[in-house]
Amino acid sequence: MTATFLTLLWLGNTAFAAAGKVVPPNGKVAGEGYAYWLERSWQTVFSISPPVSPCQTLTTNGQRVAYLTLTTLAPGTDKYTCSEAAGRPMYVVELSNECSTFKGDHGNFGTTDSQLKKCARALFEGAHETTTIDGKSVDVYKLIAATGAYHIHAAHNNILGLPPGNGRSAAYGYGLLLTGFAKGSHTIHTLASIGTSAWNITFTVVVR
Question: In this structure, are residues 52 and 69 in contact, taking their beta carbons and an 8 Å threshold?
């Protein structure tokens, strides 16, 4: 399995009001909800080779969505700066776990679709995360999502260290959908941990 800060971000009524731009649990961006974007983010992680840009753009249903991710899945402290257009929706990677059909990537679970989903959820137990947007807390626990099993393609030299090829995966965990920021500089800060691994991640989003 791969438990990581996917690698990053949140809400009750108070937190939603404070953040202002966070999409609620049942909300959508480009016609898709949190489970879709969690799946899409992991598919992207499998499909690219280093170096990884923290500031990417994904197109879904004809709409461009900013995709903020990490350049490495390794625990630690990282700071990134991204420049985005005002009002552009975005998905920010958060702490999540995936299990796939690749050897060594599903713990003691099997590789059927149901087993992959159970694996992703079971191995995420004990995860903790706190996040703020511009200093205001967001309740990330309201935004947890579970995907179904989906197809993946692992690129050569992918950052997961898996052999290249095709397979299936399922994911469980956090992610952040935003409808877009107003012009100016905005800060997304997350502290996350699972087991002995910990992340301290800061995204500075400069909106033009």
Answer: yes
Alpha-carbon torsion angle 201, 128, 100, 54, nearest 10: -10
**CB within 8 A of 123, min separation 6: which ones?**
1, 3, 97, 99, 107
- How many angstroms separate the Cα of 20 from the Cα of each of 10, 23, 46, 104? 11, 9, 32, 41
Predicted confidence (pLDDT) per residue in 69-83, tens digit: 999 999 999 999 999
With CA atoms as reference, report the closest residue to 188 among 163, 172, 165, 206.
206
What are the residues facing 151 on neighbouring strands? 168
The span from the CA of 141 to the CA of 125, in Å, is 13
Q: What is the pTM of this model?
A: 0.90
